[in-house]
Amino acid sequence: DVTPPELTCPTNITVEFTNQAGTVVRYEVVAADSCDPRVVTSCSPRSGSGFGIGTTTIYCSATDGFGNRATCEFTVTVLGARGVKENVMAELLALRPGVTDTPDGKKLDEAVEHLTKSLDSDLWIDQTHLQRKHGEKAIQEEKETVKKLCELIKDSKGPLTDAVLQGFVDRIVRADRLLATVGIQDAINAGAAQKKIAEAQKELARGDTEVAGGKCDEGIEHYRQAWQHAVRAKISPAIHVTGTRLQLEILGDPGRVYVIQASTNMTTWVNLATRTADRDGVVAFEDANASGFSSRYYRVLEP
Question: What is the pLDDT of residues 200-215, one digit of tens each?
């Protein structure tokens, strides 16, 4: 027997996340051999594994008793917050032609309008990250989307069932919670101020309480605040504006005063400047002396 087994992989799989780590995905490959029933199949990662948000390639093989081997591969894509909301948008648009009641149609159109604004590419970095400056607008627009969907749950007279509408609401809420939890974890990893992290975690817990009580739009507002606390007072990567100057951007609270410090050894810190955040919470600072050091570390303090 010199003929390899026939091995069939599934088509590429796309699913939505179920938690911050991604989700568990199960799949099935089919192997057959006309000469030898003792075909051994293996895949990596295996079916039933946890897959992170993003795309993972699965490699599979089938080997018969004579050492003949066949291979195939496919991908598993786990959608994050942005992908989930894009799916919700597509499903809402697909339902719209069947909604003939004028008040229901208006509410659904308003929900779609807010969700469209929230998906503006200028507000997003990737599946789980929003732009630091204005990303909160995406969560705010999603809050308005949920409000309209909840109004439909209370008053809909058309084909939109409560279960279907609640499913949309739950997916949007879950996506916004993911944005908040990822923001908090990023802040922890970046060594952001413990005070900000504690405030973010407190808002996250408040959001969970509101959602559990059926107040989804209020829960989203707390998730927005959690995200906002998490991204505030973090220094962006330094940008070279000339050969000798570095530019730093700090996103803090509007009107708040910040002290910018620098160090060459992470032990001794020197005050460089005191700045007040503008109405968007932004502080821009240029270090004219950066080129005089082989390494330079920065931090921000709130007096």
Answer: 999 999 999 999 999 9
